[in-house]
Amino acid sequence: MRRCSLLVPVVIIALLGLLVGSSPAARATAQDSTPAAGDEKAFGFEGVSFEALAIAPGMTLPSPADLVLVRIGLEPGAVLPVDPENPSLAMVLIESGELTVTFDGPVTITRAGSFAPVLAPAEAGGAFVAPGETTEAGETVTLQAGDVVVFPPNIGGEIRNEGEELAVGLAFIVEPPSSGGAVPVEPPSPGGAVPVEPPSSGGAVPAEGTPEGTPTA
Q: pTM here?
């Protein structure tokens, strides 16, 4: 498990502040309230609930990057291979069923319901220790509904459904931009001038029906 900064709850509150508004009253409400899983009045707002599920601190991300949100379903017996040369990073929440994963490198797993209890000590001024377990290379683990797994880039493996019902996961993927970066723009001509075709030899334009080079009266 990794030790994280005490600023984690503060960052969460700051993000809520961006959603609810930038006025002093809105900021004060967010700062004076304590988020809790299943709270019907989280951050002081009726009908708003907040449930922390997982965190992946210190990840190196491509910049710029494409953000992709996709729901993945595996029928019983289905196998999804993962390319070891894939530079994408993925965070997957298991929504239903069970998935069995085996990877060539370590992956981080946050089990369902393990995140909320560690927030209380941090909110009380203690240390925040991110919940989670890190697998060994080649280790096989089973993921159940509510579990979250982080797959680092460039690590091969496979995801299997060894159960008897459909397994569904919601994946948030960060990958290098599909466009390959900035779109090249044709540079303007020096001084902004539009290039003009050079005149014919000698500068004279031959008249219609007159052989080129024949002097006209």
A: 0.63
